[in-house]
């Protein structure tokens, strides 16, 4: 993980620059001015990973500048990380210095926390983990009141749970989420909550069905499912699928069918290019899709998937890359127009941003 340039004094200027960049990218499509959702200036990041750097007999948390893996930036705290991470950092450091079992060949520490104040620490080793390590890790987990995952080549030991529990409020309802160790989660919890509320409002109350591509652990699925008759959601990652199924059950959301397919595979299925065993028992023709929700990776939607979304009256699109968002909109702009637009500052002090658009079919 590269070290961001932390300087709250320049935050407002950087936010305005990001807003203008999004405006410029979407200007060819007549987009309305984006609604801007800012971030807390510090303690906003719910996950962090650090390499450990040895100096003499001591090891320190370390990060590196972009492109430089040889000059460590040694850290005692990390202001952009959650308060829980900052509380845990010195206590974990004291533990690896105080225990040869915990400290021996430890090379990386990863923290995953939530707005609900749950925490998981992953400890990565260049040696096999044994029963002695597990006994020490269990004591540490109890002392810190965290879950711990130990990783070494070919082995993974879980102390407590291998996920954290999050609570996010959307339109007054609290949704609970399991967020697995090692799986993708939104790093900025407060801004994620703002994204969920924006998407919930943008979709509106519908009497038809929703197709969701790239659903992950169900981050958006849970609240959006309450706005439509039923949802067909897809995700390719096994760990995310398992988490999403658990999250649907935990929140008593029963109008979602989740299938482990990539967006490209579902496009083939809907186009009747070929059948998929994972769709056995699912009648695709029974859905009355009025909207599609997409939250693709940085590469955006591939051309075939983008073409698929053209079929829908409404395309609700969350993007982590405004350049590929603009490329996808260019493909769709002859049939759809941007009616709502937003920018979410998930990543302060970097050039990265999340954005959202609602595209609706042009009137004939």
Automatic annotation (TrEMBL):
| InterPro entries, A to Z | MeTrfase_TrmA_AS, MeTrfase_TrmA_CS, SAM-dependent_MTases_sf, TrmA_MeTrfase, U5_MeTrfase_fam
Q: Which CDD domains match?
A: AdoMet_MTases (cd02440)
Q: Where does S-adenosyl-L-methionine bind?
A: 186, 214, 219, 235, 295
What SUPFAM superfamilies does this protein's entry cite?
S-adenosyl-L-methionine-dependent methyltransferases (SSF53335)
Q: What is its EC number?
A: 2.1.1.35
- Say which enzyme class the record assigns: transferase
Name the residues annotated as catalytic in the UniProt entry.
320, 354
Q: Name one GO cellular component term.
A: cytosol
Pfam families referenced in this protein's UniProt entry, alphabetically? tRNA_U5-meth_tr
Give me the reactions it catalyses: uridine(54) in tRNA + S-adenosyl-L-methionine = 5-methyluridine(54) in tRNA + S-adenosyl-L-homocysteine + H(+); uridine(341) in tmRNA + S-adenosyl-L-methionine = 5-methyluridine(341) in tmRNA + S-adenosyl-L-homocysteine + H(+)
Could you state one GO biological process linked to this protein?
tRNA methylation
Q: Which UniProt keywords apply?
A: Methyltransferase, S-adenosyl-L-methionine, Transferase, tRNA processing
Q: Which GO terms describe its molecular function?
A: rRNA binding; tRNA (uracil(54)-C5)-methyltransferase activity, S-adenosyl methionine-dependent; tRNA binding
**Matching HAMAP family:** RNA_methyltr_TrmA
Function description:
Dual-specificity methyltransferase that catalyzes the formation of 5-methyluridine at position 54 (m5U54) in all tRNAs, and that of position 341 (m5U341) in tmRNA (transfer-mRNA).
UniProt family annotation: Belongs to the class I-like SAM-binding methyltransferase superfamily. RNA M5U methyltransferase family. TrmA subfamily.
Protein name (Swiss-Prot/TrEMBL):
tRNA/tmRNA (uracil-C(5))-methyltransferase
